[in-house]
Amino acid sequence: VEVHDSDAMHSTVSNTGRLIAPVDGVYYIWGALCGWQPVITWMRAKIWSSGDGDLVKVGQANTSAAQLSQFVAVDYPLLATEYVELRAYQESGASIQMNQNPWLTKFGMHRIRDIP
User: Fold this and answer.
1) Confidence (pTM)
2) pLDDT tens-digit readout, 26-39
3) Residue 105 and residue 82: Cα distance in Å, rounded?
4) Tag placement on the chain: N or C end, fewer CB within 10 Å?
5) Burial of 89 (0-12, 13-18, 19+ CB in 10 A)
6) Which residues does 49 contact at the CB level (< 8 Å), separation at least 6?
7) Beta-bridge mates of residue 43
């Protein structure tokens, strides 16, 4: 679900998990994964770039089988047409669900300045 996109960084038709830099710049990129299914396992969230691979990642052991949420963010220089993705991993060995409510799980970016 697209909430706001004033610079055509996101497509609702193809590669819908990507945000694409429209111009060269330093971008604030962030993601919130809210509502992992309650399972005892290790869970990770990361922001991945087509230009440099992993930009930032967080990991957390869910030891109480509580519903877990994670937040990850980074300021990073991107060139025009480079894209980023929010990726989620878990190590339970089984398929587990994440809350699909668009008001709880979010991914966004905005340009904060030109590349120095």
Assistant:
1) 0.83
2) 999 999 888 777 77
3) 23
4) C
5) exposed
6) 55, 76, 78, 82, 83, 84
7) 60, 90
